[in-house]
Amino acid sequence: MSIITQLWCIAFIASVVICKPANGLSEQYRRELYYLDFYLGIRPANEQGDLEVEERSIDKYIESAAQLNCDFRSNCLWANAPSDGLLDTSEFYLLTKGDRKAFPIQVGPGNAHPPTGTHFAFAGNLTKEPQSAVLISAPIASQSSTGILSFEYWLYNSARLEVLLLKVNPVRGHLTVIERPITDCHFLKTNGLCRVEIRKQSEPFRLAIHVFKLLDPAVGSFGMLTKVRYEAELSTFHVKWAMKIHGPPIFGGMPTARWLRQRRPISSASNLNCGREDGQNENFEECLWADFAKTPGTNTAHWAIGEHTQHWEQIMRTTPSSRPKGQFYFQYVDPVAEFPLPQLRSVLIPCTQTPSSLSFKFWLSLGLQAQICTLGSDNVALSCVYLNDADAPGPLTIDVDTADHQPFRFAFNVLRIDRGANGGAAVVALDDIRYSGWLCHESAPTAPPPRLPPLSSLLQLRLPPSAAFVDTAQAFSDSLECSFERGDQCPHWMHSVSDLESGESEEEAEELPDSQRFWLGSVPRRPPFPVDPSFRGAQVAVALLNRNAPEEQFAILTSRPIPCAEKGRLTIAYFASPGAQLSICANEQCVSPKRKREADSMSVALNSAHSFRIRIVAERNNSMPISQNDLHEPFILIKSIAARSGFCSLSSAAELACQALNCAFGSEGLCKFKTLFLAAGDVPFVVTPSGEGIVARFSRGMRRAILKSRHFRLPSNEQLEMHLEASLSTFGSRLYICPDEQQKTVARLSMEKTGPNGVETDPLREFGYCELLMGPKVEERRMERMVVQLDPELRHFSLVAVHDKSEQFGDAEVHLNRVEIRDTGDRPIC
């Protein structure tokens, strides 16, 4: 039998390991196993060929790097990744060498004569569409030094492999890549040892070995590996009392206070205060709050004291302006933490003679649910209040009754997290804790000092969510309707740069400061200020106007862009206090009510042949007298916004994304994309002389071209695909797609040919999150059509062309012809 026939059999047999027989095919299955044994001398190591995994520990943090060492002879801390249909579509299986038969020369670069009894993790396929398999390790809390992952490997035909760093748990069912270390492990390597350097990591991750391009219905392809070794120093930080805390050293975490040996009861409610509003000269270690776990030493998610807020946005997924100052309490719930989690508890409060109040600021990660409870001296919950992320950061005030003059304490605890929202990890943070009230032994005043609560407190004001932090169905509503009184938050009326839409500049969508925004609030049923009866007890949008400020006072509600209007009518139900008035503006024209009544319904007709926004403006009117008896600031309350006929349909999130990204390059120029120059050696994308597409041309000293998309939002309930037509002219050139945060990575790339020590640098060294679309292997110059599935979390991306091999392979051209957005049924969106 010829070598070609032999290798065809090998490729055919590769599908055996990933396609187990169904009923009626057992004879065919046995014949394929026979060929696998006959030509390679390898066979399933057990009846089903399943990997042998240490199931009890595969989802627990390793304590030393050596735990990941694996020859596959016994149970290991490596397993098949859960299939997500994208990164992982196939499986690894366990094979063993059954004789001394040598591997053919086409199978390499590993040892052609592996010893009998060698065990392999094997992935292969014989399909037209490329398949891939991912082998993942047990989770690693963090890595404090540069690590090395090495293993012996064999590849056949088109199969390739790479090493990945993944989030511990899938995000929305998809494996999420944290980093792609440089993996120089290919078929032509002089030895069969793959050795990959892993940079220092401060957050939990899993190591992954990704074998891909498993295809070719003619001859098939496969990859296999053995002798996995991992060398690194792993991080832990410890609480030095009866337990240890293990976890990533985020926020400079320190142990909470040692109050377990409290000498005597607190003497005043203020003893529980912790933190200062300005964050200066704080010492949380002296506060009377501490971590409490029912089973010390068995959990990883202990409360700690934060000292800084580095990487706050990446960890918390919150806006940069909202974060603690100075020290603060936090609990990092890592991806493998077991419930129930430790609590943050106060010391015991002897008793109170009057109702008391606890106020605090708090921050919650996406998908985390927490509560604060009062506990009796027997640790049984007396009452609990959920922490609503819509109220964050507060301060939130909790009123506490006297608890029948019995001792009690406060306890913060996390109830659940959405493991699929952010890879399984989440954080809750607390700051500026204040407790007020009269303890039983104190001499309380016979009557509280007279004070008038501020209007913001009476109306329980809170900032509405920005469009960037709500579902696209709410952020891009197809209607202008809004009912605040029904509890709607109406993010489509909340002005935000995240609502940037097609045809607008970022200046037009610039965010307003908090003082110029409407807030959400609730009117008391018996307010200590005059208000129309229909507004009592109602939920409303509120504009507060400082009557003593020298500058103009106003607040604005801004609609989404409206394509056009013909006899459209907008009606607003509102209440205006003395000194405040309401206007509706569009196309630089404003209308105010002619009748100066406090409670009214304002209605305007709107016509426009062009796209426009509606702005509802609350402003201070100095011409309206304010009585000295009016102790509160002027304000506007809005219950609802009604829109009746005449308004053109508003674009959906999918349509807006399509308008931002669809482009026939050349005939339409660069459309809404723009080419960037970030470093020496960057070249532009320019329209070709024929006007068909755009091209980046590389010669000596020119190494990179960047095409950046504009900002967009994708629907969360609909999968969209980007169809890209592109071509490469020269071997060694590559085309990548770099999403979201990697814009910063692109900006940091060093494009110098040599580093500080004269050693050649790799221009892809920091492209940890980018996906390779084409190259570096170029057999012929032809336009190829690629399909990229767009993650709903994506906000923008860059197409990055790289050619740093001009000295070896000559000049290069990278052509981009077209970008088109389609749904999964291959139907165009716009």
From TrEMBL:
Keywords: Signal. Residues 1-19 form the signal peptide. It comes from the Eukaryota. This is MAM domain-containing protein. It comes from Heterodera schachtii (Sugarbeet cyst nematode worm).
